Fold each of these.
Amino acid sequence: MEPWTYLPNPWRTAVLELPRDCLGLLEEVRFRLNRPVYCYGTNGVVPLKIASQVMTIQQQDLDHIVGIIADHSLYARTEELRQGFLSLPGGHRVGVAGKAVWKGGQVVTMTDISGLNFRRARNIRGAAQSLISLFRRQQLDMKSVLVAGPPRSGKTTLLRDLIRMVSESGERVAVIDERSELAAYHRGHYGFDLGAHIDVLDGWPKAEGMMLAIRTLGPDRVVVDELGNGEDLPAVRRALTAGVKVVASVHAGTCEDLRCQPTWGLSLLELFDSVAILQSPGHPGVVREVWHKNQKIWQNAS
């Protein structure tokens, strides 16, 4: 199911009644306090309407929508909310904007919700084929691969297909799915087919999940999405020194972006032999260039 099907009415009906070509290319529906609701797709941006009138969103509307998608139990979703999202079945995610609540010097949750972004998860079979073929042509072993790209460039889309392809080749793959996006596990079912040789640690923090997988599951490879804090890199290093291959993703537009980040750059480029940089948004999962040991070895000609 698409993420907008979890909206209450009248917003669900308004989205589902969009013209077919618009609905098929829809990527996001964004709700912002006291502003029109907008639908973003590969064919442009249009306001959401009902009976020819542009829909706007009020505080009570946002609170109602959040209550519905959280099953009226925000307390049970505190960790997700602290990280700025709420997950939906099917690997979809709702980004949340609001006021941070601090306790003991840390953000513990969010209140006064002022914006929601319903974002569609994409599953593109074959998205990783060109990358894997390139590694084979270059005789690279894919021991440590970092997928980098700006938001909405298809990092998770590419990772899903890469997991499926290496799993189908017989590798034992442990997927650390902290946000339930890669495998989209929900109530006993996987939303995406990632192959026969996978073990999914759903909801586990990346660093803790990687260590647990290595101790108990004996993977050939671990895969994590969106490296994001100081605990993740040491866990990646421990996995590699334990002889386990690692594939991960990170937000960055260019290899130079990785070098210029004082906290991340050098450590990332030291840890990962290979870096695949994705195209800008609008080309989900398409690789723009590949680097290996700080040397560019391939660039998309298009």
Amino acid sequence: MDEVRDRVWRGSLNVRVSVCPELLLTELSESQDTNLGFVNIIVPRDCYLALYLPNIIQKLESQLRISVSDYYSGWWFEIEGARMPWNFPVGALYDSSTGLNPSNRSSLHQENSVHVWHLMLRHGQHIPNGVIPLKNGIDQIREFWMHQWKQACYILNGSAKQVMSLSKPDTLTFWQSVIHRDLTKFEPIRQKIIPMPNAVRFIPLRIHVALPDVRLVEPICKAVDNERDVELGDVLAREFPEWFEANEESSNIAKPVIQGIEVPLSALVWEVYQQLSSFDGFLHISLCLQAENQTV
């Protein structure tokens, strides 16, 4: 098995989830005990944070003033007051929301980056805009994930046939491999969907930008254009000309980060996709700002 794929699959984040104070029992919200109202967990980078809602809420349930009847419906995460969508890989959300390139995180953003990522857990009847309500628990998450693969398959192959024609056992194994973090079962089924290099129609890309505002860009990207392998810098210079130029020596003010790794602009997009694409079939690219003393 490819070592890079294995390391991507095993990547994780340390997360502290704190409960919104108004959800805590009165005596706890007024308590001086700093060990209450939060839970520390280790989350795979390549997964949906919502998959861990039951585990998080069960650990905190005895401290809540509300009676919990559903571990999915009505819950959402926030970071520094901004809502956190569950429908993108955790790692991509982390990389874009911290807004700093990996080499600077430990020194410039120590508290809320490389060591512990702080999130707030909230609950209410009205889910904020930008967060998909979870009405049907883990079944809804599974259906959403499979729909992402159908989209990715269509972009890659011009048809969703490769996903639609998976046998029921393969479809079940594919999802269970995500739940149980089993790359040995995930990868063979993934390879049934990924075309040969000379048959790639387009590459499924999602570019996450958090500054100056949160947005998602889904560019059209070929593997080869005008008989030339497309580089990551080509795509970014086209989509973000104010931030990137298509050569490595230029003074770019941002860096592409994929799976927590700074990827050079000269990297071939198709090769990067094969090694660093996410569990949902897309290559998620987070644009992280450089410090002033890093631009040249």
